[in-house]
Specification:
With 364 residues, the protein is an all-beta fold. The chain has one helix and 16 strands. The chain folds into two domains: 65 residues, Immunoglobulin-like (Sandwich), CATH 2.60.40; 256 residues, no CATH class.
Amino acid sequence: MSIVRASLKGLQASSPIADVPDAPSIGTVTDLGNGTSVSVAYTASITGGTATSFTAISTPGSFTGTGSSPITVNGLTSGTQYTFKVYATNSTGNSNQSNSSSPITPIVPATQFEYLIVAGGGGSSRGGSGGGGAGGLRYGTATATMGATYSIQIGSGGAGTTSGNNENSAPGGNGTQSYITGTGLSVYTTGGGGAGGRNATANADDESGRAGGSGGGGLLRGTGGAGNDGGYNPVEGYAGGSGSTSTTCGGGGGGAGSVGQNIQSTTVAGNGGIGSSTYSTWGIATSSGQNVSGTYYFAGGGGGSSHNGNTAGTGGAGGGGNGGNNGFNSPQQELEALILAAVQAEEEQQMVVIDLQDKTEVLV
């Protein structure tokens, strides 16, 4: 029997190999509120090898994030349910994965906002005219999606006319509607104001104010146009006032707060209906609307015009134009549309005023 002897001379001891880390313990997963990111909390194990990094991984999708607790994982899809695991890493390798987290579904948050919309007011005509009706006014609350783009139409005032003779002048135009629409949002719209009735010896119907958000005033045989043309509740505006066959003074255009006034006498035209002061706080916050002794009005009706030196009506508080005299500078309710949106974002409220020349705007 032979004996083999080996010498250890010249052998050197190598560095010890580190243990693989033990699996971390999973914690709470929190939606970060943007629909695409969550934070994943964990607790490192106190046994096993020392970890140098930690990784969270999703199911489905295998989206990952690294770092100390909590780990942020990005790139997720809003509305999809996920679970997460965490593992530790050192120079030797990766630990086993932790248990799965409770499921979570990241969602893009919905933002509540308030809107106040006013459409363009109605125009008037040469040779005596009823006052133009104010653009319809609507207020409410809606839900918008953060990051989405919303289209806004700003209604314009109806054109006044100077063509034709005093007895058969061309009619003025109605104002155009305003609206907001976009992703997940119903169309919120309001109607343009009705034009005032014109001097038309051959057609009594043309002497009546036009229907609209608020109605135009009538002239001579004409009656005031109906308001709230969209049939909304609460109403968007009121009817115009009526004229009289005994005078060429016109009735006032309707406003968002009241009907237009009928002619006051054979020598005095009707005043425009006042606008709404219900939303005075909007005016205070945004310096918009018409300030009357500290109260802000929106969407006043135009005053009726007069002829042959009679007295024209005054515009209603909230932007209504005064009536003209002698058949010129007849009242045109040139109330451009105004859209305000108060966006409530968590604990901070922002007031957004849309410029009257803009056609689209990102609200959120």
